[in-house]
Specification:
With 160 residues, this protein is α+β, with helices and mostly antiparallel strands. The chain folds into two domains: 84 residues, Aspartate Aminotransferase, domain 1 (Alpha-Beta Complex); 48 residues, no CATH class. The chain is built from five helices and seven strands, in the order ββββαβββαααα. The strands form three sheets. A three-stranded antiparallel sheet has the order 5-6-7, with no helix packed on it. The chain has a two-stranded antiparallel sheet with strand order 1-4. A hairpin with a 4-residue loop joins strand 2 and strand 3. The longest helix has 15 residues. The protein is extended. The N and C termini lie far apart (45 Å).
């Protein structure tokens, strides 16, 4: 079994400890002598026993928390997060404005799918307003997998 996985080019991410120099800048801090310390190695090995091989190409440094543009590993080292998608990159990790908005929403209700409510109407109206002029309806789903399933069903009915 490959431990540490492979990146998108097939290069293996190893878990052998690698000596590193101390770093302390505004956005980075490395205070351990090596990377791939025991906590990260144990986490990666446990995940590799429980996840499919397609997940193995991830960076093999276990993360404890995130904030701003940074990720902090299990041993307190801080790195610039160059792995996040557009949503995190846009607003940063743990942005206070987002956390406050989520907290305020959770005070009202967590989630309702089949009941009408004002925020749902606001979203549907906004989606219709920013799409093509001939589109006057919006269909909301909870996940991308629901959307894919819906497309499969649509194609099945369309093609008989």
């Amino acid at each position: 079994m490959t431990v540490g996985g492979r990146d998108r080019y097939g290069k293996e991410y190893g878990l052998e400890p690698v000596e590193v120099s101390a770093v302390k800048t505004k956005y980075r801090r490395i205070s351990t002598w090596t990377l791939h310390l025991l906590k990260s190695i144990k986490l990666v090995k446990a995940l590799e026993e429980r996840e499919p091989r397609s997940m193995f190409g991830q960076v093999s440094v276990g993360i404890r928390k995130t904030y701003g543009v940074n990720v902090e590993d299990l041993d307190g080292n801080v790195f610039l997060d160059r792995t996040s998608d557009a949503l995190v990159t846009n607003i940063c990790h743990t942005a206070k404005v987002v956390a406050d908005a989520v907290k305020n929403q959770l005070k009202k209700f967590h989630f309702v799918h089949s009941f009408p409510y004002q925020k749902r109407l606001d979203l549907v109206e906004k989606l219709i307003a920013i799409t093509l002029k001939n589109i006057n309806h919006a269909f909301l789903l909870s996940t991308g997998s629901e959307a894919v399933t819906l497309l499969d069903v649509y194609e099945m009915y369309r093609n008989g």
